[in-house]
Amino acid sequence: MNALLFAAWVATVPAATSISLDEARAQGRTNTQALVSLLEATRSEQDVRLARSPLLPQLSLNSSAGGALIGRQRIFATVCNEDRSICEQQAVETPSTDRGSFELSLNLTQLIYDRVRWKQLEQSGAVFEAAQGQAREQQDTSELEAINRFFTLYRTQATLQVLEATVRRSEEQLERAQALFEAGRVNRGEELSARVNLGNDRINLLLRQAQLVQDRGLLAVWLARPGSEPLEAQAPESLLQPPPPPPSFEQAIAEARQRRPLLVALQQQVRAASLGQEVARAGYWPRLLAQGSYSRSGPEARPVFATPRLQNTLSGAVVLQWDLFTGLSTDAQVNQARAQVRTAQLNLAQTEREVEAEVQRTLQLLATQIATAQLAAENRETAARSLSLAEERFKAGAGSTLEVRDAQLKLTQSELTLLENRVNVEIARFAMMRAMGTLSPGESK
């Protein structure tokens, strides 16, 4: 009955979508977190354009049409008699008047020299490059997480295969115990023990099926796929080959200093902070710009807009602006920028030390996992020979179900240990590559 229930449950599981390690890595680099980081870099790229815009000619067209109504006014005016022999100041009233106001103008401004603007442009470029480095760092982080989730799913799938093999061995052991009991060569207890062992193995298999569903969902969500999509991890080719030895520490740290996106980003942050100091110091320098204007204005619309030979005014000037004293604000800005430079330098130095420690740790972990996997492979071969010997003894009537069961458990444990350590070798290798900045060389500097 239990076997039928298990088979019925397996039949309800939907067909899985196969996914390779390369596909998981590529999709991991374009998941939500990576895309958000790329958008931040895009915004920084637009900041470069904004910083460049004041250095280009500024051209504006203005046009206006209006008027004014002036009511009766009481003013003092000079009033003379008819022969203009006597003139004196008198208070008089003027009648209300109105007049139009029409204007059309074209203004051109070109910055000739402004050290602040040029340094701000350089600074925005450095900030953009730092944002690009941060985006590549996030892509590496997302890819490594996708790799970890892929191998977690694959490990669960492979564990299910090991447990299924254990169930089959338990079923065969139960059949042998029943046959030997019917032949009168073993007692009833051997058959019952074999039946209990089979039930426990089936329970373990069912519990691992639940873990499979969870691991599938975690990988699918990280790859920005439907969370309910049943993925099936393809066996990576690297697992079928002996793991190569790790590189030397000197080689690994040299690669990390050159290729690690995080270090590249922090180096650009130091450069941006240094340029920020130059921007602050540029406040001591004068600014030079040229201005030109062509305008047409008058009290009536027709001369302004329809008679080109009238109402023309052309003007131009070269303007020098120099802030000789700004209340010591420029000095304060320079000191702030100097502190930011020092902060960026300290962050870079600290991160370099952390990366060095990370590289050393991942190298040691990889070497340890390779050695452990080799030992696990030897243990698995020994456990397989031990199970074969126990089964032969049981068939001959010289052994017991307990001995066979003990050998089965040791084989299952050794197979799971080998699987765990072999997968850990691959995870450790990718973690080392991520620390070195060589996870995806095409994306590195």
From TrEMBL:
It comes from the Bacteria. Residues 334-361 form a coiled coil. Its main location: membrane. It holds the Pfam family OEP. GO terms for molecular function: efflux transmembrane transporter activity; porin activity. GO terms for cellular component: cell outer membrane; efflux pump complex. Signal peptide: none annotated. It is found in: Cell outer membrane. The keyword Transport applies. Keywords: Cell outer membrane, Coiled coil, Membrane, Transmembrane, Transmembrane beta strand, Transport. Belongs to the outer membrane factor (OMF) (TC 1.B.17) family. PANTHER family: OUTER MEMBRANE PROTEIN TOLC (PTHR30026), SLR1270 PROTEIN (PTHR30026:SF21). This is Outer membrane protein TolC. It comes from Stigmatella erecta.
